[in-house]
Amino acid sequence: MARATGSGPPACAKCGACSTVCPVYRQTGREYHTGRGKLHLLARLDPANASAAYAEILSHCLLCGACSQVCTRAIPVAERLAAARAELHRRAGKQVLLRALGGKLLGQPRLLRVLAPLARIVKERRLPADSGLNLRLGLNLAPAGPGETAPSTTRESGPDPVAGPATLYLFSGCYANFIEPEIPQAVCSLLAKNGLGRARPATGGGCCGLAAYSSGQAGQARRLARKNIAAHPGSAPIVVACASCASHLRRYGELLADDPDWRQPAADFALRVREFSQYIYQANSQAPAAAAGEQPPLKVLYHDPCHLRFGPLRVGAEPRRLLQRIPGLELTELPRGPQCCGQGGLFHLAHPTSSAAILEQLTSDFRQSGAEVVTTACSGCLLHWQQARADGQHQARVLHLAVLLDRLLPPLEQQP
Ligand code: SF4
Ligand code: SF4
Prior knowledge:
Layout (H helix, E strand, L loop, with lengths): L22 H6 L6 H8 L8 H9 L6 H5 L6 H16 L3 H7 L6 H16 L8 H4 L31 E4 L2 H5 L3 H12 L5 E3 L8 H5 L3 H14 L6 E3 L2 H7 L2 H4 L7 H10 E3 H8 L14 E5 L3 H4 L7 H7 L5 E4 L14 H4 L1 H18 L3 E4 L2 H12 L6 E4 H8 L8
Parallel strand pairs: 1-2, 1-3, 3-4, 5-6, 5-7, 7-8
Helix pairs in contact: 2-5, 3-5, 3-6, 7-21, 10-22, 16-18
The structure holds iron/sulfur cluster (2 copies).
The site of one iron/sulfur cluster (SF4) has 15 residues, from α1, α2, α4 and α5.
């Protein structure tokens, strides 16, 4: 993450470097959608008086962090935009930002086709009120009240592939817990097969809080952070199945930096967070790639989640190297390199036209790659790739990286 330095916050130089990487600006061509444009407008709009216009500008952002990465003044642009959302939420109230972020869902049959079945599943499974899936599936756009608590989203009946006490915490994320439990099972299995021990979910944890943070509900995001920190005592690594959760959990230290009681526990917690593929790769980084086989290879694309490209963890080489250890698998790349999928947590609900345009550009590139499988570690990206398949934009299978690796990566002793 780009960091501001010096005594005061740096001012925008209007250089335009952020415009060149903004996926939203690439589609809309509107200056006020760039990091530069948004910072300019935010400096002139009062969130208390200009709430509707303010909300529209702030909602038209994926919070992908690409602008922060390239900013010539090291301005943490995406973090400033997230802080502005929190300020709007605090001052303007009346759910103005939440309406801008989620209010168009019912008019979007394309989105509903993918989201409605998932919404039914999570309702049947009694999704906690403070899970970010409520927002991401358009189930409940009302912010949780200050005293609202919910049972843990981490289930206690997870897989148990290795005998003996757990040595690692497993943080699955709400999507894996409530929609695709094969994902945490695969992560546990991979950890065991690679000799890394036994992972168990914490008791009393919950949603990472990213959706609350992204929708300006700073108080709720901080409550969830404290709850998760308290649920993970000790020093055991916290292995995370979802890229977006991993990125947000890693930022707990920043999120609670102004809280004297939680600053240090949050910083300690953040350092224990490990994205699962990076953790597995770093533990056994010496194994070489598999040799090419005689059969036609299975062509696979690894999709880079923005949270791992631009967030604090920077994971990209590791999942690719793990995939390259699978005999008979050929890793492909997009012609123009990694691209955002346009999901952006709540962005696809707020701006379905922009989101769909970003996705269509990506899948157009993807079709040129010839891949038969697309894999990623972010639940939001998975949803968007599944939506693209449902819309007929591609025919590839969409698999979470852990599920693919667990099915095809040989146990450590059999790796080349
Ligand atoms: S965070 Fe992403 S979408 Fe938002 S302004 Fe920056 S580059 Fe554009
Ligand atoms: S890259 Fe940074 S300094 Fe340059 S226009 Fe964008 S926000 Fe301003």
